[in-house]
Amino acid sequence: METEQSRAPHRIVAFLTVLTERPLSLYAAAVLRIGYGLLYLVFLLREFPHRDEIWGPGSPWTPELARELFDQTGWASILTLSDSRAYFETCYVLALVTSALFMLGWRTRAVSVLFAVVVASFHARAIFMTDGGDNLVLLMAMYLVFTACGRRWSLDARRTRRRASAGKNTCPPTVRAATGLRDSRQTLTSVLHNCGMFVIAAQVCFLYGSAGLYKVQGGTWGNGTALHYVVNLDLFRPWPELSLMVDEHDVMIGIACYLTVLLQVAFPFVLFGRLKYPVLTMLLGMHVGIAVLMGLPLFSGAMIIADAVFLPDRFYRSPGQWWRRTSSRRDAWSAAGDLPRGKPALVPSQLAPWRH
Amino acid sequence: MREARTRVEPTEQRDRGGKTPAHRHPPAKPSPVLLKAGTSAAVVLCLATALIHVLLVFLHVAPPNPLSRQYSRQVNAWVFPLFEQNWRLFAPDPESVNREISARTMHTGPDGTVQVSDWFDLTAVDNSAVEHNAFPSHTAQNTLRRAWSSYLETHGADDQPRSQRALMIQHYLTNIAAERISGHRGGAFESVQLRVITVPIAAPAAAGGAGSAAAAPTSAETRYLPWWKVTSHGN
């Protein structure tokens, strides 16, 4: 018992140390960045022919109506600043570019703020056209601003790596002999990131938890017929033959109903053990099913990307490590090919004043 | 957090300019103490904000309970508008009806004759846009569906707009109908009327349970909305 007591404060200290010194789950953050950047880019490209109808000055939800609603709700949007068509098209291009840059991780922190502004603006402008997927993308865009989502798999990471290899090979990216200011900046970055990731994880748990709890209250989920009604909704039946086929198997539908509710309610509780892998796999299957059967790829994509936050760094690194192990010879090849990359050697001299 | 940083920066510069060789021992100087205090304060602020945010979002998404009722003002002030969310995805029960929304137009000629058009099935257009499309547009799946559900939320059964919001939604629906009709059919008109047929989805034949039978009405229902003047987009 004594050891238990003395261990508890130690644990708290250790926890705080990790929280303040090291950004956790950097790969998951990168996956969220790439995922939501790509998803929004695809969304904007998909709705390109309908852009004026959804967000433009020609929308049935007119700019005046949108502004009136903003006055009531406190929303804001860059899209209602002007009713001119040219301004709208400019914003659209800006949104496309921002999404692409966010996905690529170029100057990520600044671009992530821009991305959040873009997503919030487009969401607010067409608030009566959004669904759960749009809502989730908005929340994630907001939370990702606080994370260090550009540290891995990004143009920023590539730049840092090149600088490091072109400059001092022995120096880690964060120079240890840094001044106190840089230390505290690093602490703040880590804390912000870790808090951001914690909020994202909690958000996903709330999503599934409440979706499950509300379903438990419904009679059709209880008697296993809910999905029968879902597959018969005309607007969510892109492949009527497929939906009809699914509808014929009422036992399967019953099982799927129960499984859906169980998975959603259980979700927050399985995350801390090995059980999370089968549960996440089943959720992945469920979302792929929703994407195809109901014609909701955007919604499903947003959910799948959100689930990715729960996979640890070693999961994301393992394919790369495997790749490196199996193709070490090819690595040697590409290393030789890297030589012309000596060009960025110019960069460290630019960096120098900042580093001293 | 920003405050802490700006407060610290001048001392930092002095520190850098004055004692370059000694900057490996930050605890020896007074400025790092301040810096440390500022950083700790920022860390605490971050943690507290994250926890409060999570708590308030939980109260927002959870079913209404004594706690969320007591703190509803704080919860709403924090959550709206940016963090508003609703995860009642097909819950508590999925919709058990399909809605067929049609519209027709009225045109008064120069000689005073009134012409009423045939019904134009707006939902059929949406349905055919969704069918055999792996990535349907929001304009097909969400526009009319959400406009109508918002109308139901803001209006009573008598189609009387009792709030500003209700009036706005009515305006929105009018615009959707007017734009779609003039896009598909053209022609001049001054007002539109909507007709909403609610078709219940039959309970599964095999189950035929007592529970599901209660959930859905058995026959289609037709609702005619009043004629609305087309204000902004009439041709």
As an assembly, this protein is heterodimer
What percentage of residues of chain B falls in helices of 4 or more residues?
40-55%
Number of helices of chain B: 8
Beta percentage of chain B is 5-15%
**Overall form of chain A:** globular
**How far apart are the first and last residues' alpha carbons of chain A, in Å?**
51 Å
Label the overall shape of chain B: elongated
The total count of strands of chain A amounts to: 0
The main pleated sheet of chain B reads as: 6 strands, antiparallel
- The number of helices of chain A is 18
| Classification by helices and strands of chain B | alpha+beta
Order of helices and strands of chain B: HHHHEEEHHHEHEE
N-to-C series of helices and strands of chain A:
HHHHHHHHHHHHHHHHHH
Quick check: average pLDDT of chain A? 88
Question: Which value, in Å, is the CA radius of gyration of chain B?
Answer: 30 Å
Report the helical percentage of chain A. over 70%
Strand portion of chain A: under 5%
Measured distance between first and last alpha carbons of chain B: 57 Å
Question: Unreliable segments of chain A (pLDDT under 50, ≥5 consecutive)?
Answer: 173-177, 338-356
Structural class of chain A: mainly alpha
How would you describe the overall organization of this protein?
The complex is a heterodimer of chains A (356) and B (235). Chain A has 356 residues and is an all-alpha fold. Chain A has 18 helices and no strands. Chain A has helices spanning 2-21, 26-46, 51-54, 63-73, 85-104, 108-125, 132-144, 155-166, 180-216, 219-222, 226-230, 240-248, 250-270, 276-293, 297-307, 313-326, 328-338, 346-355. The longest helix of chain A is centred in the middle third of the chain and has 37 residues, at 180-216. The termini of chain A are far apart. With 235 residues, chain B is of the alpha+beta class. Chain B contains eight helices and six strands. In chain B, a hairpin with a 5-residue loop joins strand 1 (97-108) and strand 2. Chain B is elongated. Mean pLDDT of chain B is 83; it is low at 1-30 and 207-216. Chains A and B meet through helix 4, helix 7, helix 9, helix 10 and helix 11 of A and helix 1, helix 2, helix 5, helix 6 and helix 7 of B.
